[in-house]
Amino acid sequence: MTDSAVEAAKRAAAQQAVKDHFDPNSTHVGIGSGTTIVYVVEAIKERSTNPNILFVPTGYQSRQLVINAGLQPISFDTLPDNVMLDVAFDGADEVDAELNCIKGGGACLFQEKLVAERAKKFVCVADYRKRQDRLLTVWPTIPIEVAPLSQRKVVAALKLLGSTNPTLRTTLLEKSGPLKTDQDFFIVDAPFKTLLTTADVKAGKGNGDGSDGTWEVNAISKAIKGLTGVLEVGIFSGLSGPEAQALRDENKSSKATAGGQRPVAVYFGMADGSVKLRTVEGEQ
Ligand SMILES: O=C[C@H](O)[C@H](O)[C@H](O)COP(=O)(O)O
């Protein structure tokens, strides 16, 4: 496939996602990071007739994208406590059959997770290369944002969890040193064996607790998040949107936010120009 076919797939997925989930009467919309989100902003711009919508970006690149499109950005930390985003759109590096995602290929996972968790619905847009049944099928590593001071300690702890060669991400020009996130933190990319889904564990395909070298998505996310020095893990799993809200309403908040945020819908642009929609009900 040519680069232009991949770009066409991203654009087609973005157009469909925005058509289905962007309401021009929204008040607050989250905008993620990466190369696919560019097409989401393009599609919103085409449809939006409302200059009062506030867009919450997930980092520097995302904020520039919003500004360049002539849309109005608002910083996450200025949102009043009672305001939920009507919708948040973002890209993904890989998505499994249960809609768990790996994100952070562009080092933006922390703010992306804040925004995803604040949205009534979180929608992901990706090209066909990201559409898998299990995480770490093609995408090789879990991106992890760590405090610089703790980097060596976290790398050692990741090895104990079974990661073969966790690596500090450097800038493209390696001699310039470690890449810094928007929080001035580092990214460690940790390879693990392909992750089990919750259904895999229920079906007895493994314990998923790492004891045999294989982890289930939520279990590895929780284990990494528990390491001192880790700000956030690039696994977006756990309940999302109204499901999460229902649990919060029942005062089971720890369950509602466990592991981060899973999208309610993922749009994959396919190589043949079509778009596949994956939800918890399945794929169409
Ligand atoms: O850190 C970057 C973000 O998580 C991106 O959303 C993710 O890497 C997907 O990016 P792209 O749309 O460029 O594939």
- Count the DSSP helices: 9
Q: Termini, distance in Å?
A: 23 Å
CATH class membership of the largest domain: Alpha Beta
Q: Report the bound ligands by name, code or SMILES.
A: ribose-5-phosphate
Tally the beta strands: 15
CATH architecture of the largest domain: 3-Layer(aba) Sandwich
**How many domains, in number, for the residues?**
2
Q: What portion of residues belong to β-strands?
A: 15-25%
Work out the radius of gyration: 18 Å
Using brief descriptors, characterize the structure shown.
eight-stranded mixed β-sheet; Alpha-Beta Plaits; 2 domains; alpha/beta; four-stranded antiparallel β-sheet; globular; Rossmann fold; 284 residues; 30% helix; Ribose-5-phosphate isomerase; isomerase; 15 strands; binds ribose-5-phosphate
Explain how this protein is built:
The protein is an alpha/beta fold and 284 residues long. The strands form 3 sheets. An 8-stranded mixed beta sheet has the order 3-2-1-4-7-13-14-15, with helices on both faces. Strands 9-10-8-11 form a 4-stranded antiparallel beta sheet. The protein has 2 domains: 3-132 and 237-283, Rossmann fold (3-Layer(aba) Sandwich); 141-234, Alpha-Beta Plaits, CATH 3.30.70.260. The protein has helices spanning 3-21, 37-47, 60-68, 109-117, 151-160, 198-202, 217-225, 241-249, 253-257, and strands at 28-31, 54-57, 72-73, 87-90, 94-95, 101-102, 122-127, 141-146, 167-168, 186-191, 230-233, 235-236, 265-269, 275-279, 282-283. The longest helix has 19 residues, at 3-21. It contains 9 helices and 15 strands. The protein is globular and about 55 Å long. Bound molecules: ribose-5-phosphate (R5P).
